[in-house]
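RECORD CONTENTS
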Amino acid sequence: MVTKRPRTPQEKKALSYAKDRRESFGQNDKASRRLVPKHKAEAHRKLRRVDKQALMDAETAAELLPLELQKPEWRKSPGTSLGDHVEERLEERALLDANPVANWPGRGRLHGLKYPERSETLAARTVEIFESVRQALKMKRGE
C-alpha cells in the first residue's frame, strides 16, 4: 500500500487557490443553497408544462416542442476561483488606497472609480429624482 506524502502548507494554499470557488455574480454566496434548486425546479416545471400541452394537442406537438425546450434551459455556472477572487480584491483595495476621498466610503467609491461614466449618469439621475420629489412635496404642501 502506497501512502501519500503530507502536503506542505504552501502546497495546500496553492491547491486551495486553484480549486476553491467564490460566487461572483453579485448575490450572497449562501443564496445559491436556495436558488439553485428553485431554478432547476422552474426549468423542469416549464418543460413538463410544454409536454402536457403537446399531449393534449397532438397536431401542434412539433410547434410546441422546439429543440431548445426539450432540455431544461437553466444551467448552473461555476463561480470564480479563489485565487482570481483574491487577486481582484487586492486590485480593488489598491485602487481605493490610491484614490482617497473623505466623504465617499468603500464600495460606492470603488464603483465610481471603476465605472466613472455610469456613476456620473447615476448621480445626475439621483439629483433629478430628488428634485422631482422635492417639487411634489412643495405642491402637496401648497407652497
Summary: The beta strands are 21-22, 80-81. The chain has a mean pLDDT of 79.
